[in-house]
């Protein structure tokens, strides 16, 4: 369930998630066109290039590269001309064709772009191909890959970052870990819908400035999305709503078409003919799609977290002590932390959402506020329901004792980020500093496996001297 954003607003400003929200980029209008800036990032632009170069080397070992200099030269001429219009830091762009018939393209941080042969074959004019390249350049310029990696890193080691200990060495180690190998489902290549909209905006601006009609970018994506031929592109670039409308609106902000746009070139048609004359590409992407395009549910079934260990270890905060399965990890800090197994966290847009485990928060109650356990719990649940509209109370279990203190226990069902439904067991206890909230979460079909572990965690809670 997505609880962090909601609690974050009510918590003190040291909550990591609040900080991330503030640091995220907001589009604003400067003059006419939309001005976008890269969001929160722990990496330097130079590190984007280093990381991208390392991953690119590995990618080229794994992928069937076309290695046709005429095609690659063409892509580089076209791509570099487009990249010259990209806002922000300049990157050493390079473009290469992958000999794969699936319709796909991807960009690594620092400007290493790969265009599948199938994508060039599917494009009907140069503006369509330029549209995809412009969109990918948008991801590079806005540093979406390392932005994603930074957010993942904050989630994995918030204490280290808060304490400022994530210095040269550990950052270098993280870079090495990310850059060690290329994976199609890498954190560097999984974009949120927001990132897609931003990349479309930059793509629109680039196409406009390079004298193409930017609508070809949106209509090409639309054509791929509704066409009979499947495409891998949308598995890493989720299709935003109303794409064409957004592109049209940005064109209106930039200005009117004063020049004759050149949407096709002889060079593009020559390259298409050249590809036609080559032996057909292996159908790797398609093979990958038939097994690779999975619903969140089946993906989760394959990558299910390990069952909770019956051995426990201790966690101490300023507000409580407790014990938890030793194969779980702790993320967060004093007032808001999560205990979760490997693979228990899912991405939902820009949020990290817990699908398996326990989230513990201390929701501060403003001084002088007249409230009690029942009232504070009702208010909390009201705000949780606003951020989790599918959430439904299935059982009010009334009172229970947590380390001798009175608590309330309620069971909800909700949509699981892992697919299907989840059970949220919510226990609240009033403490001197605020309302202590335990949220125990697991998909409905596995709740039985987790229930015993959850009970052990709750039984172990110790408020002594806290
Ligand atoms: Zn994209």
Structure description:
- The chain has 466 residues and is of the alpha+beta class.
- The protein folds into 2 domains: 31-293, no CATH class; 301-460, 3-Layer(aba) Sandwich (Protein Transport Mog1p, Chain A), CATH 3.40.1000.
- It has helices at residues 4-10, 16-23, 45-62, 69-83, 117-122, 126-141, 144-156, 158-162, 168-179, 193-209, 215-226, 233-236, 243-254, 266-277, 284-292, 296-302, 373-387, 447-460, and strands spanning 28-29, 34-35, 94-98, 105-108, 112-116, 312-316, 321-325, 328-333, 336-341, 345-348, 351-354, 357-364, 392-402, 405-415, 421-431, 434-443.
- A 7-stranded antiparallel beta sheet has the order 8-9-12-16-15-14-13, sandwiched between helices.
- A hairpin with a 5-residue loop joins strand 14 (405-415) and strand 15 (421-431).
Short description:
With 466 residues, the protein is α+β, with helices and mostly antiparallel strands. Helices cover 43% and strands 21% of the residues.
Topology:
Blueprint: H1 4-10, H2 16-23, E1 28-29, E2 34-35, H3 45-62, H4 69-83, E3 94-98, E4 105-108, E5 112-116, H5 117-122, H6 126-141, H7 144-156, H8 158-162, H9 168-179, H10 193-209, H11 215-226, H12 233-236, H13 243-254, H14 266-277, H15 284-292, H16 296-302, E6 312-316, E7 321-325, E8 328-333, E9 336-341, E10 345-348, E11 351-354, E12 357-364, H17 373-387, E13 392-402, E14 405-415, E15 421-431, E16 434-443, H18 447-460
The structure holds zinc ion (ZN).
Zinc ion binds at residues 135, 139, 191, 196, 199, 237.
């Amino acid at each position: 369930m997505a609880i962090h954003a909601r609690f974050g607003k009510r918590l003190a400003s040291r909550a990591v998630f609040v900080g991330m929200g503030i640091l995220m980029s907001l589009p604003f209008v400067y003059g006419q066109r939309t001005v976008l800036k890269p969001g929160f990032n722990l990496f330097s632009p130079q590190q984007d290039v280093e990381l991208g170069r390392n991953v690119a080397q590995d990618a080229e070992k794994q992928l069937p590269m076309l290695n046709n200099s005429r095609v690659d030269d063409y892509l580089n001429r076209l791509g570099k001309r487009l990249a010259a219009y990209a806002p922000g830091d300049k990157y050493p762009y390079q473009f290469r064709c992958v000999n794969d018939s699936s319709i796909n393209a991807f960009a690594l941080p620092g400007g290493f772009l790969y265009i599948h042969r199938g994508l060039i074959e599917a494009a009907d004019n140069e503006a369509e191909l330029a549209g995809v390249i412009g969109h990918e350049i948008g991801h590079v310029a806005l540093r979406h890959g390392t932005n994603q990696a930074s957010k993942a890193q904050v989630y994995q080691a918030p204490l280290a970052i808060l304490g400022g200990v994530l210095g040269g060495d550990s950052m270098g180690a993280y870079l090495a870990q990310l850059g060690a190998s290329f994976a199609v489902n890498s954190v560097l290549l999984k974009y949120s819908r927001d990132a897609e909209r931003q990349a479309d905006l930059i793509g629109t601006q680039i196409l406009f400035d390079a004298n193409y009609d930017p609508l070809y970018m949106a209509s090409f994506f639309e054509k791929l999305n509704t066409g009979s031929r499947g495409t891998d592109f949308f598995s890493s670039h989720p299709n935003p709503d109303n794409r064409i409308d957004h592109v049209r609106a940005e064109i209106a902000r930039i200005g009117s078409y004063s020049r004759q746009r050149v949407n096709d070139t002889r060079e593009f048609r020559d390259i298409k003919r050249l590809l036609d004359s080559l032996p057909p590409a292996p159908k790797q992407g398609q093979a990958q799609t038939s097994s690779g395009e999975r619903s969140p549910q089946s993906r989760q079934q394959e990558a299910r977290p390990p069952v909770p260990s019956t051995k426990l270890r201790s966690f101490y905060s300023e507000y409580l002590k407790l014990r938890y399965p030793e194969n779980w990890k702790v993320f967060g800090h004093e007032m808001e932390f999560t205990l979760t197994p490997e693979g228990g966290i899912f991405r939902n847009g820009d949020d990290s959402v817990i699908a398996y485990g326990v989230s513990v928060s201390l929701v501060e109650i403003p001084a002088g506020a007249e409230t009690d356990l029942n009232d504070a719990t009702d208010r909390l649940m009201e705000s949780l329901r606003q951020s989790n509209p599918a959430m439904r109370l299935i059982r009010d279990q009334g009172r229970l004792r947590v380390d001798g203190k009175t608590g309330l226990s309620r069971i909800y069902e909700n949509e699981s980020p892992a697919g299907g439904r989840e059970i949220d067991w919510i226990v609240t206890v009033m403490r001197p500093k605020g309302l202590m909230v335990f949220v125990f979460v697991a998909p409905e079909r596995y709740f039985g496996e987790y229930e015993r572990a959850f009970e052990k965690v709750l039984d172990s809670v110790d408020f002594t001297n806290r």
